[in-house]
Amino acid sequence: MIGPAVKSDQGWAGKAPDSKAWKGRRGRSRKAAAAEQDRAAGGPDRRWVDLDGGRKARASVELKLLPRTRRIRAYLRWSDRGRSPARYLGEVHHLTRAENLAEGWGFARAQNLLAEADSDSASWAKNAAVRAVMRANRSRDTGPELRMRSLLHRAGLRYRVNTRPIPALRRTADLVFTAARVAVFVDGCYWHGCPDHHRPSRQNSEFWLDKIAGNRARDQETNQALVEAGWRVVRIWEHEDPVDAAERVAGIVRGITGR
């Protein structure tokens, strides 16, 4: 069942945000709107909410601008027997609608407002047990990652989310501080082989061991390529305390920029 939402106390400073940060494209079709939500949520199977009586509904994230306070708020909305309930998720502060929608979905996941899909027929995972592991080990917008973003923004630091530090290099960092040339990666304990918390899959174990080893090798290649290009790479495990991680990142960025 849908539970209570958590409120964020962040806000926009100065002038109001540009409409591209929150407003949808005018005249778009329902299909285009649904595709936009699917991309932001990480797939159509990640947009379900539980209703009473064992029912489910597909939800969407709605962005609203509060003109007086210049704040953009994200809400989770769905349809239920002719009604359109909504839950407040929090405030978002990115420059584009796509990023703000993605953060809204991240808030919904962090607040446990979302349910599993009705069917797993489209999943590439071998069985229900493997699918459960994959769902439990998200690669982005985890709760600790969102909390760290919030703390950094509140500390006055600005960054880009899920961006390539070097456009020509197909490696995406979770946070990019362009002026300081700092790239931050929040590594999931499962996907990146955390020495403390990684638990290998018991089924098809050889495949997954090779997969994780490949991910770790790719991480090292990414680090080397960015360092050679003049970037500072910061890697944080998702199990690390968000407050400590944010302080660490802020110290590095401010140490470089002198602010």
Automatic annotation (TrEMBL):
Q: Has UniProt tagged this entry with the keyword DNA repair?
A: yes
InterPro entries in the record? DNA_mismatch_endonuc_vsr, Restrct_endonuc-II-like
Task: Report if keyword Nuclease is assigned.
Answer: yes
Q: List the molecular function annotations (GO) for this entry.
A: endonuclease activity; hydrolase activity
Which Pfam families does the record associate with it?
Vsr
An annotated GO BP: mismatch repair
**Where is this chain compositionally biased, Basic residues type?**
22-31
Q: Where is the composition biased (Basic and acidic residues)?
A: 36-47
Coiled-coil intervals in this record? none
Where does the record place the region Disordered? 1-47
Question: What keywords is this UniProt entry annotated with?
Answer: DNA damage, DNA repair, Endonuclease, Hydrolase, Nuclease
The UniProt entry, under NCBIfam families, shows:
vsr (TIGR00632)
Q: Which family does it belong to?
A: Belongs to the Vsr family.
Q: What is this protein called?
A: Very short patch repair endonuclease
Upper classification of the organism: Bacteria, Bacillati, Actinomycetota, Actinomycetes, Micromonosporales
